[in-house]
Each structure stands twice: as C-alpha cells, then as structure tokens.
Write a structure and sequence with these properties.
The chain folds into three domains: 60 residues, Nucleic acid-binding proteins (OB fold (Dihydrolipoamide Acetyltransferase, E2P)), CATH 2.40.50.140; 67 residues, 5' to 3' exonuclease, C-terminal subdomain (DNA polymerase, domain 1, Orthogonal Bundle); 55 residues, Helicase, Ruva Protein, domain 3 (Orthogonal Bundle), CATH 1.10.8.10. It has nine helices and five strands, in the order E-E-E-H-E-E-H-H-H-H-H-H-H-H. The protein has a five-stranded mixed β-barrel with strand order 1-2-3-5-4. The protein starts with a strand and ends with a helix.
Length: 205
C-alpha cells in the first residue's frame, strides 16, 4: 500500500493531480480543499495517501494532512459512503466544520452537502460522532488560506445543491462552485452569483 508521496507537482487537472516521484508519475485524486492548497507546478509536495483497490479499478486518494486522511478513512467506513462521496464531502466543507456538524447533530447543514440526504446525514452522525469527538476539531490545524466563513459555506453549499438539482454530478458541481469562488474578487459571494458564474464558466469550456 502507498501511504505517502513526496515529489514534484507536474499536472493539475482538478480533482486529479500528477506527482513525479523519482521519474514515476502518480495520479492522485484529491478533495478540492487540498487542491486549492497545492503549490505551483514543479514545486515539491508531500501528500498523505489512501489506496482504493476494487475489482474494476485501483486509484490513489491524496490529502494535505494526516488528519484529513483520517477523516476520509472514517467516512468510508460508514454504510453507503464510498470514496467518491467522502472526497465530495471533504471538497465542500472543512474537517473542522464537519466535526462541528456531527458533534452538534446539525443534520440541516449536513444535508446541504453534495450527495447527502437526510438518512445519510443521520447515519453519519450516529456512526462517526464517537470517533471524531476526541480529536476533532481541536487537533486539526486551521487552513486559513482555504477556510471559508460560515456564511460563505452556507452559500457555497446552497449553490452546489442547486447545480446538482440541475443534473450535474456532486463532484462536478462542487468543482464548478469552487472554481467560481476562486475566480471571484469578493470575499463573500451569494449562492445565486456562484451559480451564474459556475454555469458561465461551464459554457465557455
């Protein structure tokens, strides 16, 4: 199993990046919170990884911190939550805020996340609360460069849910919204503006 990679970032195609480790290029799928904290191309990066092995595929998931990987590993043990959904969750909310939602039984916030319905939100709270309360959020470092204010997180989640309702896949909708956020010059942007910007970007691709 591959648990960690250190090498140069040679490609960025969200949510996938390629890391050159002594001449071998590893494709790694990362949540958007990790993607937006990556260094520039040709810069050295260390990622904590988790290898998914299935009958039809093998792929690496990468995380900027061991704590983020631990949360991912906790999520994929929940019935009905696979690797893709876990990555989507970590793309849409910080680990600290996710832990708060779980510990405070905030199902309303959880069901705003892409791919999370009421039953899944309730299952997450029941199955992971005891596993998170001892080490989240206190032990997780705050990533100021990617942390959104709570109000903006609400707008982001609402925009993502709206795009999913329009027929986009959860991961694609999250990526569209995150790109719209990255392109914005404002510190805060409404869900409506995010949706319009995301759709405009999609139309120009």
């Amino acid at each position: 199993m591959i648990g960690r990679l250190t090498g140069k970032v040679i490609e960025k195609n969200p949510p996938v990046l390629v890391i050159d480790v002594q001449g071998v290029g590893y494709e790694v799928e990362v949540p958007m919170n990790t993607f937006f904290s990556l260094p520039d191309l040709q810069e050295t990066l260390t990622l904590f990884t988790h290898m998914i092995v299935r009958e039809d595929a093998q792929f690496l998931c990468g995380f900027i911190s061991d704590e983020e990987r631990r949360l991912f590993r906790t999520l994929i043990k929940v019935n009905g939550v696979g690797a893709k959904l876990a990555l989507s969750i970590l793309s849409s909310i910080s680990a600290q805020e996710f832990a708060r939602c779980v510990n405070e039984n905030d199902t309303k916030a959880l069901i705003q996340l892409p791919g999370i319905g009421k039953k899944t939100a309730e299952r997450l709270i029941i199955e992971v609360r005891d596993k998170l309360k001892d080490w989240l959020p206190a032990s997780l470092p705050t990533q100021n460069n990617i942390q959104q204010p709570v109000a903006q997180q609400d707008e982001t989640a609402e925009a993502t849910s709206a795009l999913i309702a329009l027929g986009y896949k959860p991961q694609e909708a999250s990526m569209m919204v995150q790109q719209a956020l990255a392109d914005s010059v404002d510190d805060t942007i409404s869900s409506g503006e995010l949706i319009r910007a995301a759709l405009k970007n999609k139309a120009t691709v």
